UniProtKB/TrEMBL annotation:
<feature type="transmembrane region" description="Helical">
    <location>
        <begin position="60"/>
        <end position="82"/>
    </location>
</feature>
<feature type="domain" description="EamA">
    <location>
        <begin position="3"/>
        <end position="130"/>
    </location>
</feature>
<feature type="transmembrane region" description="Helical">
    <location>
        <begin position="169"/>
        <end position="194"/>
    </location>
</feature>
<keyword id="KW-1133">Transmembrane helix</keyword>
<dbReference type="GO" id="GO:0016020">
    <property type="term" value="C:membrane"/>
</dbReference>
<feature type="transmembrane region" description="Helical">
    <location>
        <begin position="144"/>
        <end position="163"/>
    </location>
</feature>
<keyword id="KW-0812">Transmembrane</keyword>
<feature type="transmembrane region" description="Helical">
    <location>
        <begin position="244"/>
        <end position="262"/>
    </location>
</feature>
<feature type="transmembrane region" description="Helical">
    <location>
        <begin position="89"/>
        <end position="108"/>
    </location>
</feature>
<feature type="domain" description="EamA">
    <location>
        <begin position="144"/>
        <end position="285"/>
    </location>
</feature>
<feature type="transmembrane region" description="Helical">
    <location>
        <begin position="206"/>
        <end position="224"/>
    </location>
</feature>
<dbReference type="Pfam" id="PF00892">
    <property type="entry name" value="EamA"/>
</dbReference>
<feature type="transmembrane region" description="Helical">
    <location>
        <begin position="114"/>
        <end position="132"/>
    </location>
</feature>
<feature type="transmembrane region" description="Helical">
    <location>
        <begin position="269"/>
        <end position="287"/>
    </location>
</feature>
<keyword id="KW-0472">Membrane</keyword>
<dbReference type="InterPro" id="IPR037185">
    <property type="entry name" value="EmrE-like"/>
</dbReference>
<comment type="similarity">
    <text>Belongs to the EamA transporter family.</text>
</comment>
Length: 288
């Protein structure tokens, strides 16, 4: 069950990142974050009311609040790093956040077997290579590296926090709802400050019309992201956190494949090798 839900997480996150990346080509990143997460709030709120999830409120929800605060900071740091580039360095480095939940798993006493340790090493190497790291060319700005590491730590922290935010399915819906409300609050405040300082909230070409036409895509990104958090939480609660975290972080491979299939981007040799290593690591983890 752990492997199945963790792989579902990587699929959902990979598609959400792909969709979010396309949307930010025309729409400011902060607006994409706030709009996509707002759709998730509406859907989750309805589910929580229908399932009576508010009865699950308790101190564990503070983990969800913390995840909701950290998430937008990590996402915006990642987008800023991508803007500074090069993307071929930033993208694979962002997946190194897997070290946080894996570290948590080791701290709480998990001890993977030899095959699983090998699977972790091979899968992480594959994840990094799947991003197509640029080994030559212009030097990377120190600020881009720093922002990427902040984003990676934030993504990993969100994974660790949300897995601790509930113990039941209805409680998970409530935790995800609280996380998303916090996301929108923090992201909305950041967007307000950005506009006050002269930033844009709407696309330069098309304005609000572009936002309305993008609503289905925004909803997909928001719902895929929240569903990924949910499937990861289930995976981490029903099996080793180390295994769940590594398999869930295969999402860069999914993003690369989506770009290959849907945008007809050419797959570099290093990316193909990374995807292959990631698959080998998955088999080793599952067999361990």
């Amino acid at each position: 069950m752990t492997a199945l839900f963790a792989l579902a997480t990587s699929l959902l996150w990979g598609l959400a990142d792909f969709g979010g990346g396309l949307l930010t080509r025309r729409t400011p990143a902060l607006t994409v974050v706030v709009a996509s997460q707002s759709t998730a709030v509406l859907v989750l709120g309805s589910i929580v009311v229908a399932t009576g999830g508010f009865s699950e409120a308790g101190p564990l929800l503070w983990y969800a609040v913390a995840a909701g605060v950290v998430g937008p900071v990590a996402m915006l740091s990642f987008y800023k790093a991508l803007a500074l580039g090069p993307m071929g360095v930033v993208s694979p480095l962002g997946s190194l956040g897997v070290a946080v939940p894996v570290g948590v798993g080791l701290i709480i006493g998990e001890r993977p077997g030899l095959l699983q340790f090998a699977g972790i090493a091979v899968a992480v190497a594959g994840i990094v290579l799947a991003g197509g790291p640029e080994l030559r060319g212009a030097p990377v700005q120190r600020q881009a590296i720093l922002l990427t590491l902040v984003a990676a730590f934030g993504f990993g922290a969100v994974m660790a926090l949300i897995s601790e935010a509930s113990t039941t399915l209805t409680g998970l819906f409530l935790a995800l709802f609280v996380q998303r409300v916090t996301n929108v609050t923090v992201g909305g405040a950041a967007l307000y400050v950005s506009v006050k300082r002269g930033g844009r909230a709407l696309p330069e070409d098309g304005g609000m019309r572009v936002i309305w036409s993008s609503l289905p895509a925004l909803a997909f990104v928001g719902l895929a992201d929240v569903a990924a958090n949910g499937t990861y939480s289930i995976a981490a609660q029903h099996g080793p956190v180390t295994e769940a975290a590594v398999l869930a972080n295969l999402y860069p491979v999914v993003t690369v494949i989506a770009a290959l299939v849907l945008l007809k981007e050419r797959l570099r040799v290093v990316q193909a090798a990374g995807a292959g290593l990631a698959l080998v690591g998955t088999v080793l983890l599952a067999s361990g």
